[in-house]
Hints:
By secondary structure, this protein is an alpha/beta fold. It has helices spanning 4-11, 15-22, 30-43, 49-56, 72-87, 101-113, 128-136, 158-171, 186-201, 219-232, 244-256, 290-305, and strands at 61-67, 91-97, 118-121, 141-144, 153-156, 177-182, 211-214, 238-241, 266-268, 285-287, 314-317, 320-322. It has 3 domains: 4-56, 434 Repressor (Amino-terminal Domain); 61-156 and 290-317, Rossmann fold (3-Layer(aba) Sandwich); 158-288, Rossmann fold (3-Layer(aba) Sandwich). It contains 12 helices and 12 strands. A 6-stranded parallel β-sheet has the order 2-1-3-4-5-11, with helices on both faces. Strands 7-6-8-9 form a 4-stranded parallel β-sheet, with helices on both faces.
Amino acid sequence: MINIKDIAKQVGVSVSTxxxxxNGKKYVTQKKREQILKLIEETGYVPNKAARNMxxxxxxxxxxxxxxxxxxxxxxxxxxxxxxxxxxxxxxxxFFVKFDDISEKDCLDRLxxxxxxxxILIQEIRNPGFYESLNRLQLPVVVSTFSxxxxxxxxxxxxxxxxxxxxHLIGLGHxxxxxxxxxxxxxxxxxxGGYYKALEMAGIEQDESRVLFAPYYTAESGMYxxxxxxxxxxDFTAIYAATDELALGVIRILKDEGLRVPEDISVVGFDDxxxxxxxxxxxxxxxxxxxxxxxxxxxxxxxxITGNPAFKQELxxxxxLIIRESTARKN
Length: 331
């Protein structure tokens, strides 16, 4: 069976040149490329993955760090990232991590044990030593949907997007606006900060009792927290949920309690996950440009791996307020 060395010898080029052509890479003259492709077609040569990796001294494997409990938004995101990475010739390994020191250390140890070309984090790590350890490994790293100093980051302006969400409710005449959030992650703090800023700009009194913290950013947590809110106080006309999944749980409990959305209570989410447009009522939310976030995450990492000029450290992509049926003017 013909191998890559045979192809290189017959054309009179190096093995790495044949590898570049076989794997669709550039930097080969048109004449040589045509000769190599013609010979590959005539001989039926199939590039050997192990041989390619050995020649290029790369594993063509990218590690993706994802939360142990992930939501629909993150599921959509890493699916998009994985698809784009695959188009660059990489396969992926997933590393699950909880938001605690022991789990973060275990995740780091697993990352160190694998031969990886790069790492993508879509789960925020609270221990700065985690990032420092990755840096010592000299692995290209990209973080997606949050930022960390000196690491390429792709995200939206969480605070400004949150201001837009709350301003939409204020513009509809709502003044008693509650927020359901969760603790532990920077994006939650930024979205909560946007909530308070929007109220301040509108001259509405900021009342900390109107912000409730769910255990997680999931629909189940939204249901649990909404039940607690209704037992405690029903003096509100709108709910701003920090994620669409929390909003799903909120709407479910409001329906169960006989409250109409949006006639009695308006609800706004954040993320614009796929299911948001299929709910009854369809959810008003902040759209994060998922396809672009995922594509840019993969592209920036690929460029870092292949030694191309790096993008600027923080790429802030535009968000969009999507107005649907879950919000209405206050009666």
